[in-house]
TrEMBL record, chain A:
The keyword Signal applies. SUPFAM superfamilies: Periplasmic binding protein-like II. This is ABC transporter substrate-binding protein. Keywords: Periplasm, Signal. The keyword Ribonucleoprotein does not apply. GO terms for biological process: polyamine transport.
From TrEMBL, chain B:
It is a multi-pass membrane protein. GO terms for cellular component: plasma membrane. It comes from Metarhizobium album. This is ABC transporter permease. It comes from the Bacteria. InterPro entries: MetI-like, MetI-like_sf. Keywords: Cell membrane, Membrane, Transmembrane, Transmembrane helix, Transport.
Length: 371, 314
């Protein structure tokens, strides 16, 4: 695959300042979103700090977005691997105390980012030029403007070791209730990704979310009898590698990572469906003007086709720009939905509903699992 | 002149100058306040702690508004009601309390012989070895030590591999309550030994010899002489281990497989996972209160042990 192309590489700042009109017409410049603003291009900061998830997640971001951005602008990108949940209160506190926030860009789950947007700590990103080239997926649902830009979607698949399923791939989440899987299943420690399919597997309806989720809790209670391991993203890959588990409800990227490491791992979207969600990028309020400008350029570049292609090839996830080529190993894969038919099997609940109820769902899930 | 300089050396002059400066900065009539000045670092430390607790107390009476993710302006006891009525928090609190008591008892039982041998052994080599073995874990962080157990006790770990050699199928040794307790005992042992050792050192060997010469076998000597005299060490070590276990985060998180949370894990969840700082503050304050009550109870019943630095009789 060809790497992203950067006409800016050959342009000096002096040439850039010679005229915004000429630059605005230059092919590909809009991919960096700078064509509008060259005449008053603000001072470049020495670096931008981007919070990211570790492992293959940050490697992909670096290859697809950060490194090319640095090459094009000369601005170094530092990746802060503080957990998304842990950076959130730090950013909130900084904004509340009118301090400069500790990061320039937060790579975050849309649900978490929505909380920050509701709290009013996010900058508006509606003016990013590349937004016009993206699908509806990039727009956060239930919020005004673009306090967040969604950058890709992902599926919480049922990942499994084929060796443990000699009769073929699991078809239902209920297959995990087989006693032979006691202690051999993994879920996220707050149940994220599992609440909605559990609602269906427990005999309930998605339309009843959030009003009546008893079927989901009943199914979670049955799953509790299987003594599942509860962890975070990196745990799943490790547990598969160490032979601790046979199946997991996890983001397909983690399963793919284990497969890349040489493990025999496959995944399915069971008949009840699987949760589909998005991650995004946002900028906290309180940055100096010039840093805000360049942070926006970073996000604008992240939703360019070139950047998305490389970044999301690494993650194995579908982006928000039409025409991306799926990685060869994920063509037709349910974790990389591209067709309407494939999306029919996925469960998408609005971020607003999730944000308003997440605390209660986490508590309920934890109460069952800790009991 | 030369003789005078010799009689009044330069360093004395420097000291005089320093004394004069000190006299300006801290005049003689301030001297009565010198002991209080010595307390300043402690007051500063406790003051900061109190300030933090005060802010947490304020947050604990405010509830989270999920429309804005801000804490409410008005005060209520809603968070406290949730903390003492929701099954999740009751379960986790119970597990933490029971776990910390079990860990304290086991740690003291295991640490005592270690400390006793370390103090009493006539072999300098053995004493050095025990001291090195005692201090080595302090150079390795808690997380690394917990990770070590993941490697050793995992399904494909050393222990299960050894089981495999004698025909025993791999078994799940991790991600359960006993694994958490085991990890905590291993983590707490050096603390306990360090607290027990001074108490044992303070017991003159001659007293044990005297008990023996009066016909007591080692069991009776141990029971009627060593154990009672080592009580300050047990109290001090017990308090340290109890409070550290009760508030531990990393070991339950790493060895518990996500289903054996202690209170600290629940507090973390509220602050960082559900963004409910009010409820997190409530749980944290309740933990401080319960821990303080436990320590107060032990102080009342048994004294402060070695923590009293010999000032208070146990």
């Amino acid at each position: 695959m060809n790497g992203p192309k950067f006409p800016l590489n050959d342009l000096t700042r002096r040439r850039l300042l010679q005229g915004a009109a000429a630059l605005g017409g230059a092919a590909g410049l809009s991919t960096l979103g700078v064509s509008r603003a060259f005449a008053q291009e603000p001072e470049k900061p020495a670096e931008l700090i981007v919070r990211a998830w570790g492992g293959s997640w940050v490697d992909s971001l670096k290859a697809g977005v950060s490194d090319p951005f640095t090459k094009a602008t000369g601005i170094a990108i530092r990746h802060d691997l503080t957990e998304d949940n842990e950076i959130q209160p730090k950013v909130w506190a900084a904004v509340a105390q009118k301090r400069v926030p500790p990061i320039h860009i937060n790579w975050d789950t849309t649900t978490n980012a929505t909380k920050s947007a509701l709290r009013g700590v996010t900058e508006d990103l509606s003016d990013l030029p590349n937004l016009k080239n993206t699908t509806d997926l990039s727009k956060p649902v239930g919020l005004d403007g673009y306090p967040i830009v969604n950058t890709y979607g992902y599926v919480y698949v049922l990942a499994y070791r084929p060796e443990a399923f000699p009769n073929g791939a699991p078809k239902s989440w209920k297959d995990l209730l087989d006693p032979k899987f006691k202690g051999r299943i993994a879920l996220y420690n707050d149940g994220i990704g599992f609440h909605f399919p559990a609602q269906v597997a427990g005999g309930g309806k998605l339309e009843d979310i959030p009003g009546n989720m008893q079927p989901a809790w009943d199914f979670v209670a049955k799953m509790k009898e299987q003594s599942p391991l509860l962890g975070e993203d990196p745990d799943f890959t490790t547990w598969f590698q160490k032979g601790e588990i046979d199946a997991a409800c996890t983001i397909s990227t983690n399963a793919r990572e284990a497969r890349k490491a040489g493990l025999d791992i496959k995944w399915v979207v069971p008949e009840e469906g699987a949760k589909y969600d998005t991650d995004g990028l946002w900028i906290p309020k309180g940055l100096p003007e010039n840093e805000l400008y360049w942070a926006k350029q970073y996000i604008d570049f992240a939703i360019s086709k070139d950047a998305q292609q490389v970044w999301l090839d690494g993650l194995g996830l579908p982006g928000v720009v039409p025409g991306l080529t799926p990685p060869a190993d994920l063509v037709g894969d349910p974790s990389y939905p591209t067709t309407e038919e494939e999306f029919k099997h996925l469960i998408r609940i609005s971020a607003k509903v999730q944000v308003e109820n997440e605390s209660e769902w986490f508590s309920k899930f934890k109460a069952i699992m800790q009991g | 002149m030369k003789a005078a300089r010799t009689a009044y050396p330069i360093r004395w002059r420097v000291m005089d100058a320093l004394e004069a400066v000190a006299g300006i900065l801290w005049p003689r009539f301030f001297r009565a306040g010198t002991p209080y000045l010595m307390l300043a670092p402690a007051i500063l430390l406790v003051g900061l702690l109190v300030l933090g607790l005060w802010q947490m107390a304020d947050a604990s009476f405010r509830t989270l508004d999920t429309n804005t993710f801000l804490l409410s302006e008005d005060y209520s006891l809603a968070n406290y009601k949730r903390a003492v009525t929701e099954s999740l928090f009751i379960t986790v609190a119970g597990r933490s309390l029971v776990g910390s008591i079990i860990v304290t008892v086991l740690t003291l039982v295991i640490s005592f012989p270690y400390a006793y041998v370390m103090v009493r052994t006539p072999s300098a080599t053995l004493r050095k070895f025990l001291l090195i073995a005692l201090f080595l874990p302090f150079f390795i962080g808690q997380v690394v030590r917990a990770y070590g157990w993941l490697i050793i006790l995992g399904n494909q770990g050393m222990v299960n591999e050894a089981f495999g050699l004698i025909g025993i199928a791999p078994m799940r040794l991790l991600y359960n309550y006993p694994a958490v307790l085991f990890g905590l005992v291993q983590y707490m042992m050096p603390f306990a030994v360090l607290m027990l050792a001074p108490a044992l050192t303070a017991i003159p060997e001659e007293i044990e010899a005297a008990a023996g010469s009066l016909g007591a076998d080692w069991v009776r000597t141990f029971r009627h002489v060593v154990l009672p005299m080592a009580r300050p060490g047990f109290v001090g070590a017990g308090l340290v281990v109890l409070t550290l276990s009760l508030t531990d985060f990393a070991i339950p998180a790493m060895l518990g497989g996500g289903s054996q949370d202690f209170i600290a894990n629940a507090i973390y969840d509220q602050f960082f996972r559900t963004s409910d700082q009010g409820l997190g503050a409530t749980l944290a304050l309740l933990l401080v209160a319960v821990g303080s009550l436990l320590v107060g109870l032990v102080f009342t019943l048994f004294g402060a042990g070695t923590l009293a630095m010999g000032r208070v009789k146990a």
